[in-house]
Structures are given as C-alpha cells and as structure tokens.
Amino acid sequence: MTTPATSVSNLSLPLPRLAIPLGDPAGIGPEVVLKALGARDWSAIATVTILGTRSLLHQTLVALQQSSYAGPLPALDSLDLADISPPLPLETVTFGQASAATGAASFAYLQTAIEGAVAGQYDAIVTGPIAKSAWKAAGHHYPGQTELLAEGAKAERFGMAFVAQSPHTDWWLRALLATTHIPLRQVPEALTPALLTQKLDLLIHSLKQDFGLTQPRIAVAGLNPHSGESGQLGREEVDWLISWLEAQRQRYPQVQIDGPIPPDTMWVRPGQAWFGTEGRALETAHDAYLALYHDQGLIPVKLMAFDRAVNTTVGLPFVRTSPDHGTAFDIAGRGIADGNSMVAAMEVAVEMVGRRG
Ligand SMILES: NC(=O)C1=CN([C@@H]2O[C@H](COP(=O)(O)OP(=O)(O)OC[C@H]3O[C@@H](n4cnc5c(N)ncnc54)[C@H](O)[C@@H]3O)[C@@H](O)[C@H]2O)C=CC1
Ligand SMILES: NCC(=O)COP(=O)(O)O
C-alpha cells in the first residue's frame, strides 16, 4: 500500500487527523484496531484518536497479550483515546453477542466521530465494524454507518465504494455499488437513470479527487444474465440502460464508459489483473467498476481482496474508510481476527486526505 503522505515533499504538511470509532464492542472492532495500531509507526504519517470505551480496549489488549497472537501491539498509554459517554459497563458485553447496549455504544462512538469531523477536528473517520441488528435493538434505524455519516454530514448524494491494492501486482481494484442495503427484490425498482447518474457522478468525482484519475475507464455492469440477451432474459438493458450509457458518454467525453457488461464476465479481467495471471489484464482492466447491487460487487471484491479491501463513503465533506469485513461475532474475543483490512483502511484514509490536500 503506498502512502504518499510520508513522501519527503509532504513532510511539512500537517499530518492527517484520523478518528477511529471502535465499532460494536462485542465484535472484532477493538481487536483489529489494536492490531492495526501496532502494525506500523502511525505517528510518522497521521494523528490517530480512538473513540470508544477505555476499559473495553484495555481488556481487549490484555486478552491479546495473553493469547497466542505474536504481532506487535501498542501500549494503551501511548494512545489518544476518548472515553465516550454513556459509560459501557463491561459486564454487559459478551463477545459474539450483539445487544442493545453494544449497539448504543457503537452508535455513540460513531456519532462523536461525525460531530468531530463536521466541526473540523478530524480529516477522516476510519470506522470499526458495527452490527446493524444491534443498532436496531438500541432504537437506531439506519441501514448502516454510511447513512448515519451522510445524515450527519448533510450529504444528500453519497455512495458506497470499495478499493484495494493487489499484493500480487499492485493493481488497484475499485468498485462502487449503485444500490446497497436493500432487499434483492427491490433492486430493479430502485435502479433508475437518475440514481445511476448520481452514482456515476460520485464515482467520477472520487476517481479524480481521491486517485488523481482525470480520464478514467469505467465498466458498468448489466442487471440481468448476459445483460438481458437483447431483452430475452430481462428488459432493463434494452428499455433504458443502454440509452442511459450512451447519454453518459456524451456527458463525459473524457471518460471511457463501457457497458452494460454481462455481470458474470465483468470480473474476469479484474481477477486476472489482481492475481497477475494474465499480463494484458493490467492494461485492459478498468480503473473502476460500477456494480448495480450489493452482492454483484461485493462477492468478487471479497473473493479477491477480503483481507485488504477498504470500504469508503464517497460524497462526504471528509474522508470515511472502513475495513471491508463486519463484526465477525463467530471469532470475536479469540484473538484470531486479521487486522490487515483495518491497516489498509487507515492507510487509504491517509492517502485520500493527502490527495485532497
Ligand atoms: N462496515 C461495517 O460496519 C460492516 C458491518 N457488517 C455487519 O457485521 C455483522 C456480521 O456480518 P457477516 O456477514 O457475518 O460478515 P463478517 O465480515 O462479520 O464475517 C464473515 C466471515 O468472515 C470472517 N471474518 C470477518 N472479518 C474477519 C477478520 N478480520 N479476520 C478473520 N476472519 C474474519 C468471520 O469470522 C466470518 O466467518 C452484520 O451485522 C453485518 O451487517 C458487515 C460488513 C461491514
Ligand atoms: N456490506 C458493506 C457494509 O455493510 C458496510 O456498511 P456501512 O456500515 O459502512 O454502511
């Protein structure tokens, strides 16, 4: 992962200020945050503020020190840690069991981070994973952290994108989801030309702002098998998607917009570019992929890059990144969670803040 914020030319710039809300206390959030903080010397490239519960982080650190985990861990005293109210009694937390109490805590951590970012105290929020069910149990009805971030930042247009750099080839995988946390049966109604235009605009803006790509090549997936096979297997493509794409090519003459690409084969070239199994794929793979629904994008992304993909919310006035994984309740408290996606989320946040200046 490259971190331009560390380059010599940037040494005089103020360091990016990251806020890290810990996520659900019963999940692996606190563990992966500690592992990520120990993974490198962050003080050279960022200032980091943890938003959570001190006693929970202390307990997690002690458990990790006593476990078979052999990687480096930070000293608790070395961390800038804000103890968020209301206090979370540790006896109410059972690893692996989301509850109203843990949902209320993770909600408060994130809200404090958002308030700080909106007030200009932080340049980026790197979120630990939350459980949507726990938020609901606590009375907070949001599909996910993305929507709370957008509401807090007063962003009417926002999108969910995933980025990852291949450890095999250094190639960047970037995918934006046109629809996110809605039932599959609602996807065709939710997908409209207006919605897709909004998401494409956000993607093109982010590619320029966050990755310096001014003439990107973007692939847009079809919705139906074989992109509808001329209307035989579904009509969205012939009814409006093909003409919408043509209109976008007129709107963005500097952007190569390909599609609708049959969703099953759209991911072949990214896979080759990611794993380095076909040399030409590095030149022919697109700079970004627009998937029409959650699993159309996230199954391939997680298949390629589950240990290092980064979820980012585009359209906010500050940077937001997150590891691609969830609370992993099945392994919480066992010390075996992989912290690499959290490391990548922090590095990508530093990089994006640096690029946005
Ligand atoms: N950004 C966020 O806050 C996210 C939250 N979630 C939430 O997390 C909860 C659980 O979701 P799941 O679908 O079970 O996905 P998950 O990512 O929590 O777990 C899926 C599988 O991957 C494993 N896994 C996940 N992260 C791992 C890590 N760092 N190291 C090793 N193994 C890991 C788990 O043990 C599990 O077997 C749900 O409430 C979901 O909504 C899911 C994705 C992102
Ligand atoms: N599948 C991605 C995911 O659940 C992330 O949601 P969010 O909490 O970042 O909105």
Automatic annotation (TrEMBL):
<keyword id="KW-0521">NADP</keyword>
<feature type="binding site">
    <location>
        <position position="146"/>
    </location>
    <ligand>
        <name>substrate</name>
    </ligand>
</feature>
<dbReference type="InterPro" id="IPR005255">
    <property type="entry name" value="PdxA_fam"/>
</dbReference>
<comment type="pathway">
    <text>Cofactor biosynthesis; pyridoxine 5'-phosphate biosynthesis; pyridoxine 5'-phosphate from D-erythrose 4-phosphate: step 4/5.</text>
</comment>
<dbReference type="Pfam" id="PF04166">
    <property type="entry name" value="PdxA"/>
</dbReference>
<keyword id="KW-0520">NAD</keyword>
<feature type="binding site">
    <location>
        <position position="302"/>
    </location>
    <ligand>
        <name>substrate</name>
    </ligand>
</feature>
<keyword id="KW-0560">Oxidoreductase</keyword>
<feature type="binding site">
    <location>
        <position position="181"/>
    </location>
    <ligand>
        <name>a divalent metal cation</name>
    </ligand>
</feature>
<feature type="binding site">
    <location>
        <position position="311"/>
    </location>
    <ligand>
        <name>substrate</name>
    </ligand>
</feature>
<feature type="binding site">
    <location>
        <position position="226"/>
    </location>
    <ligand>
        <name>a divalent metal cation</name>
    </ligand>
</feature>
<comment type="function">
    <text>Catalyzes the NAD(P)-dependent oxidation of 4-(phosphooxy)-L-threonine (HTP) into 2-amino-3-oxo-4-(phosphooxy)butyric acid which spontaneously decarboxylates to form 3-amino-2-oxopropyl phosphate (AHAP).</text>
</comment>
<comment type="subunit">
    <text>Homodimer.</text>
</comment>
<keyword id="KW-0963">Cytoplasm</keyword>
<feature type="binding site">
    <location>
        <position position="320"/>
    </location>
    <ligand>
        <name>substrate</name>
    </ligand>
</feature>
<dbReference type="InterPro" id="IPR037510">
    <property type="entry name" value="PdxA"/>
</dbReference>
<protein>
    <recommendedName>
        <fullName>4-hydroxythreonine-4-phosphate dehydrogenase</fullName>
        <ecNumber>1.1.1.262</ecNumber>
    </recommendedName>
</protein>
<keyword id="KW-0479">Metal-binding</keyword>
<keyword id="KW-0664">Pyridoxine biosynthesis</keyword>
<comment type="similarity">
    <text>Belongs to the PdxA family. PdxA2 subfamily.</text>
</comment>
<feature type="binding site">
    <location>
        <position position="294"/>
    </location>
    <ligand>
        <name>a divalent metal cation</name>
    </ligand>
</feature>
